[in-house]
C-alpha cells in the first residue's frame, strides 16, 4: 500500500484485525488524529463512519492496513488491501437509485474518495476529509 | 347545587379527555392528556438520571410509557390516570435500562463524562457556530482530549432505544446542498434518488433520520435540531440503522 508523503505531511499507520470488536481501536486512532489536526467533532464522526462502513464491507479477510496521511488542511486515509470484490462493485458506477449502499454513504460523509490501487484482485480505497478553516 | 368531588375520577378533566379519546377517537384529547402529564414523566425520569444516559432520553422513554397508559386505560376503571400511568412510565424506563443499557462494563467516570459530553457538544456548537474540536470539548469539560475520546468510545458501548414511538410531528423538510465533491475516479451521481426502498423495516424515526442525512445531505447537528435529539444520539442511531440494514441484507 502506498501512502506518499511530502515534507509537510505526517503518516500514521495501523494494521488491525477486521471485526466489530476492533472498531474501537480504529475509532480511537482516528480520534487522536482528528484532535491533532483540529478536525471538528462531527467531521471526526463522519470519517469514523466512512472507515467503519468500508471495513464492514471487507468481508472475511483477517486484517487490513490503515494509513493516515495528515497535512494541515486534510486527512487522507488509505484503507487496504481489501480483497472483497463487492467493494469495487459498490464503489464504481453510479449510485443505485433507491439504495443506501457504501457509495452513497461515502458520498455523504467524506469530501472525496477513490481507488489508489487495484492490482491482482486487491484494492486500496482512499478517503479524504478536509479540515475546515476556523 | 351539585359539586363534584375533588378526588372523584368521574369529574376530573382527565376523565373527560379520556372519554373523548376512547369513545370518540379524539386524538387532540390524547395529545392534551400527554401534555398535562409530562410533568409527571419528567419527575419520574429525574429519579433515573445520572445512570449513564441523558435526562432528555429518559424523559422520552417515559413519555412512551405515558402514551401506552393512556391508550390502555379502561374507562370502567375508577382510578385516576396519574395512579394508572405511574407504574407504566416507571416500567418503561426500567425496561429501557435493562434492555438497552450499557452493554459492556464502562467505568462510571467515563459514563458520566459521556453524558456531559452531549450537552457540551450542543453548547459549543451554538457558541462557535460549528462543530467543536476535541480540544475545545476537553477544555469545556475540564478533561484531557484522550479522556474525551475514551468517553465518546464509551458511548458506543451503549445502544440507544428506538424513539420512533415517541410523539412528534413531521416537519417540512428543506432540501440542502449535499456536502462533498466529485473525486476524479468517481463521478458523483447527479440524482439523489429516494432511499425509501432501502430503508426496509426501520422504525419511522430512524427512516426519517437516514433520509435527512443521506438523501437531503443535512448534517447531524441539523438533524438533531429537527428531531429534538442530541447530535451524539443522532450519530448512534445512524450507525445502528446502517448496521441493522446490512445485517438484514446479509441474512
Intertermini distance of chain B: 70 Å
Helix content of chain B: 55-70%
Largest sheet of chain A: 5 strands, antiparallel
Work out the count of structural domains of chain B.
Answer: 2
Number of helical elements of chain B = 10
Number of strand segments of chain A: 5
Beta-strand fraction estimate of chain B: under 5%
The greatest inter-chain interface is formed by: A-B, 43 and 50 residues
Q: Kindly identify the CATH topology of the largest domain in chain B.
A: Butyryl-CoA Dehydrogenase, subunit A, domain 3
Q: Tell me the strand order in the biggest sheet of chain A.
A: 1-2-3-5-4
Give the helix/strand class of chain B.
Answer: mainly alpha
Give the terminus-to-terminus CA distance of chain A. Answer: 33 Å
Provide the succession of SSEs of chain B.
HHHHHHHHHH
Brief characterization of the structure:
The complex is a heterodimer of chains A (134) and B (251). Chain A has four helices and five strands, in the order E-H-H-E-E-H-H-E-E.
What report would you give on this structure?
The complex is a heterodimer of chains A (134) and B (251). Chain A has helices spanning 23-37, 41-56, 85-91, 102-109; strands at residues 10-17, 63-71, 74-82, 112-117, 123-130. A 5-stranded antiparallel beta sheet of chain A has the order 1-2-3-5-4, with helices on one face. Chain A is α+β, with helices and mostly antiparallel strands and 134 residues long. Chain A is globular and about 35 Å long. In chain A, strand 4 and strand 5 (123-130) form a beta hairpin. Chain A has 4 helices and 5 strands. By secondary structure, chain B is mainly α. Chain B folds into 2 domains: 13-100, RNA polymerase sigma factor, region 2, helix turn helix motif (Rna Polymerase Sigma Factor, Chain: A); 108-165 and 195-250, Up-down Bundle (Butyryl-CoA Dehydrogenase, subunit A, domain 3), CATH 1.20.140. Chain B is built from 10 helices and no strands. Chain B has helices spanning 13-24, 27-46, 55-72, 81-100, 108-128, 134-141, 145-156, 204-215, 220-227, 231-250. In chain B, helix 2 (27-46) crosses helix 3 (55-72), helix 5 (108-128) packs across helix 6 (134-141) and helix 8 (204-215) crosses helix 10. Chain B is globular. At the A-B interface, helix 1, helix 2, helix 4 and strand 4 of A face helix 6, helix 7, helix 8 and helix 10 of B.
Amino acid at each position: 500500500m502506498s501512502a506518499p508523503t511530502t515534507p509537510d505531511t505526517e503518516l500514521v499507520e495501523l494494521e488491525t484485525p477486521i471485526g466489530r470488536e476492533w472498531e474501537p481501536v480504529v475509532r480511537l486512532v482516528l480520534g487522536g488524529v482528528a484532535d491533532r489536526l483540529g478536525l471538528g467533532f462531527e467531521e471526526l464522526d463522519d470519517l469514523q463512519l466512512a472507515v467503519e462502513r468500508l471495513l464492514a464491507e471487507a468481508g472475511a479477510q483477517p486484517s487490513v492496513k490503515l494509513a493516515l496521511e495528515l497535512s494541515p488542511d486534510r486527512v487522507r486515509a488509505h484503507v487496504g488491501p481489501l480483497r472483497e470484490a463487492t467493494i469495487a462493485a459498490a464503489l464504481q458506477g453510479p449510485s443505485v437509485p433507491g439504495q443506501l449502499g457504501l457509495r452513497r454513504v461515502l458520498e455523504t460523509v467524506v469530501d472525496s474518495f477513490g481507488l489508489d490501487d487495484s492490482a491482482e484482485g486487491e484494492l486500496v480505497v482512499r478517503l479524504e476529509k478536509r479540515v475546515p478553516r476556523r | 347545587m351539585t359539586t363534584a368531588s375533588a378526588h372523584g375520577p368521574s369529574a376530573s378533566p382527565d376523565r373527560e379527555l379520556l372519554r373523548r379519546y376512547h369513545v370518540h377517537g379524539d386524538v387532540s384529547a390524547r395529545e392534551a392528556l400527554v401534555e398535562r402529564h409530562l410533568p409527571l414523566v419528567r419527575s419520574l425520569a429525574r429519579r433515573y438520571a445520572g445512570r449513564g444516559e441523558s435526562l432528555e432520553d429518559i424523559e422520552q422513554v417515559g413519555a412512551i410509557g405515558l402514551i401506552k397508559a393512556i391508550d390502555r386505560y379502561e374507562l370502567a376503571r375508577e382510578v385516576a390516570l396519574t395512579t394508572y400511568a405511574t407504574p407504566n412510565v416507571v416500567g418503561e424506563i426500567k425496561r429501557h435500562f435493562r434492555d438497552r443499557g450499557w452493554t459492556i462494563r464502562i467505568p462510571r467516570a467515563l459514563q458520566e463524562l459521556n453524558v456531559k459530553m452531549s450537552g457540551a457538544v450542543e453548547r459549543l456548537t451554538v457558541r462557535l457556530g460549528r462543530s467543536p474540536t476535541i480540544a475545545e470539548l476537553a477544555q469545556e469539560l475540564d478533561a484531557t482530549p484522550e479522556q474525551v475520546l475514551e468517553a465518546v468510545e464509551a458511548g458506543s458501548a451503549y445502544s440507544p432505544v428506538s424513539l420512533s414511538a415517541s410523539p412528534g410531528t413531521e416537519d417540512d423538510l428543506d432540501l440542502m446542498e449535499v456536502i462533498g465533491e466529485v473525486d476524479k475516479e468517481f463521478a458523483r451521481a447527479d440524482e439523489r434518488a429516494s432511499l425509501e426502498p432501502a430503508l426496509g423495516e426501520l422504525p419511522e424515526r430512524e427512516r426519517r433520520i437516514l433520509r435527512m442525512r443521506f438523501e437531503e445531505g443535512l448534517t447531524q447537528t441539523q438533524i438533531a435540531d429537527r428531531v429534538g435529539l442530541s447530535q451524539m444520539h443522532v450519530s448512534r442511531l445512524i450507525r445502528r440503522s446502517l448496521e441493522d440494514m446490512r445485517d438484514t441484507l446479509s441474512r
